[in-house]
Specification:
Blueprint (H helix, E strand, L loop, with lengths): L2 E8 L5 E2 L15 E8 L32 H7 L8 E6 L5 H12 L4 E5 L4 H10 L8 E3 L4 H11 L3 E5 L16 H18 L2 E7 L11 H5 L2 E7 L5 E9 L7 E7 L2 E4 L3 H6 L9 E8 L2 E13 L7 E4 L3 H15 L6 E7 L11 H13 L7 E3 L2 E2 L5 E2 L4 H10 L4 E5 L13 E5 L2 H8 L1
Parallel strand pairs: 4-8, 4-9, 5-6, 5-7, 7-8, 13-17, 15-16, 17-20, 20-21
Antiparallel strand pairs: 1-2, 1-3, 9-10, 10-11, 11-12, 13-14, 14-16, 18-19
Helix pairs in contact: 8-9, 9-11
The structure holds thymidine-5'-diphosphate (TYD) and magnesium ion.
Length: 449
């Protein structure tokens, strides 16, 4: 008989340890080590099962996954064109951001196909109250106020819905596991059971998951690896806009976004986000630049606001909202060192208006221009959009999908665009847009101020 030994495996990073420790030496997370029994000795690794049948790639039937749309275009696009039967989608976001609202709307729209909504956090009466606020009819959604995963699976078996919503995974538990609901072991186990059910029955499953303060999904990282798709619902609590972003998608692209506005009657899709993000712009004010980011296939124009003021601290402040602070520091260093723009005695605050979060380097030049504009107290031309990545030697680098960005700018009535000189070709910009090609930061500053 094969012998066995016990090992402890971190559910977050996979680190293995011979004994249990409270804090994982690998990723320094607390309480993530879980006991596992492994067979050792002769025979432990010997094949015990029968060989499976492999197939030639060419013999596998191709054909796209059948999908069914929810009818909310912003939502369907993020999923890659609708819901794939049998897929498991993790919907993550901060508490109170609107996950339950979004899932209630989706459930109501899909009710004719059969939807089981498991409300582990709320009573059915609370869900009813929310559904009444929304302008969709969800009368046929089946509600189940249950947190025992076995009961949930049995109900799913009995009702056989096309779609199940689990709100939220952190409330589920399996009675035979000793740990509390929300713990790493419980979340992992419950998710695995739900996955199995989804794959065997074709029931598409949406799993709501909360996010911790540092932005990671509470519970084990393995959850992200297990599910087919991970979408984040992001936004600023103080703004009405919510961005749904795919961060992993086995059935589609991962950089698609959907934009919604939180209203008193639920989340409303925003078909033209650029207009929204520019709507409150104060043209003619210094420290403002309009950039064009591309999120997935979709160009989004947004306003960058910068405020540069003499500091009263020994080390000046640098704050970025909606943009990486370190990237801002880098841009300031380039402005200072390469272009001689004195910022060492200035506080610099940068904000992306409307609560949008930008991650693309293509917005660098716009940020640099907003900073220079505020420092000099001179406004940029109101009808100009700025696009370009800034390199460490002060060069302006080309950006992907420039034509898409320029088309969007022209559509919104912009008349000129500062763009990287490299890689331009005839016909890249619409007729109405005048291009200002620049290859260095200095050129952009000279042309704009
Ligand atoms: P909720 O979906 O419950 O958030 P989550 O499930 O992510 O924790 O929504 C939270 C907020 O949304 C709540 O503060 C109220 C607000 N809200 C609206 O503004 N309009 C609505 O129609 C609904 C249902 C909620
Ligand atoms: Mg909720």
């Amino acid at each position: 008989m094969a012998k066995s030994r016990t090992r402890y495996v971190c559910q977050s990073c996979g680190h293995e340890s011979a004994r249990w420790v409270g804090r994982c030496p690998g990723c320094e997370a607390w309480n993530t080590l879980v006991e596992e029994i492994v067979a050792t000795g002769p025979g432990a690794r010997a094949a015990q099962g029968r060989p499976g049948r492999s197939v030639r790639l060419a013999d596998v039937e191709s054909g796209s996954e059948p999908r069914f749309p929810t009818g909310i275009e912003e939502f369907d696009r993020v999923l890659g064109g609708g819901i794939v039967p049998g897929s498991v989608v993790l919907v993550a976001g901060d508490p109170g951001i609107g996950k339950s609202t979004l899932m209630t709307e989706v459930a109501a729209l899909l009710a004719p196909q059969g939807v089981l909504y498991v409300c582990g956090e709320e009573s059915p009466a609370q869900v009813r109250l929310r559904a009444d606020r929304l302008e969709v009819d969800g009368s046929d959604v089946r509600l189940l106020a249950e947190t025992d995963v076995d009961t949930i699976l049995a109900s799913a078996e009995e009702l056989d819905p096309a779609v199940a919503v689990i709100d939220s995974i952190q409330t589920l538990y399996r009675p035979d596991l000793p740990s509390a609901p929300g713990s790493v072991a419980q979340v992992r186990e419950c998710a695995a059971l739900l996955m199995r059910r989804a794959k065997s029955s074709g029931m598409a499953t949406f799993v709501v998951g909360h996010v911790t303060k540092d932005g990671t999904i509470a519970g084990p990282r393995v959850l992200e690896h297990m599910v087919d798709t991970v979408v984040h619902l992001e936004g600023d609590r103080h703004h009405a806009y919510r961005v749904l972003r795919a961060v992993k998608n086995r059935f589609g692209s991962t950089n698609e976004i959907g934009v919604f506005e939180m209203q008193s009657s639920g989340l409303k899709p925003v078909a033209n986000p650029s207009e929204i993000f520019l709507s409150e712009r104060n043209t003619g004010a210094s420290g403002s630049a309009v950039i064009c980011a591309v999120e997935g296939t979709r160009p989004v124009l947004a306003e960058i606001q910068a405020l540069v003021t003499p500091t009263s601290y020994p080390s000046p402040q640098r704050t970025a909202d909606g943009f990486d602070t370190r990237r801002l520091q880098l841009l300031l260093a380039v402005l200072e060192k390469r272009e001689g723009i004195r910022l060492a005695a200035q506080d610099v605050f940068v904000n992306v208006a409307g609560g949008l979060r930008l991650t693309e380097p293509a917005v660098d030049l716009g940020i640099a221009m907003a900073v220079v504009s505020s420092l000099r107290d001179r406004a940029l031309p109101a009808d100009t959009v700025v696009v370009g990545e800034v390199g460490l030697s002060g060069e302006v680098r080309s950006v992907p999908q420039l034509a898409t960005r320029l088309k969007e700018a022209a559509k919104l009535g912009f008349r000129s665009a500062v763009v990287p000189a490299y890689g331009l070709h005839a016909g890249i910009a619409p007729q109405s847009l005048e291009l200002v090609p620049v290859s260095r930061l200095r050129e952009a500053i000279d042309r704009l101020f």
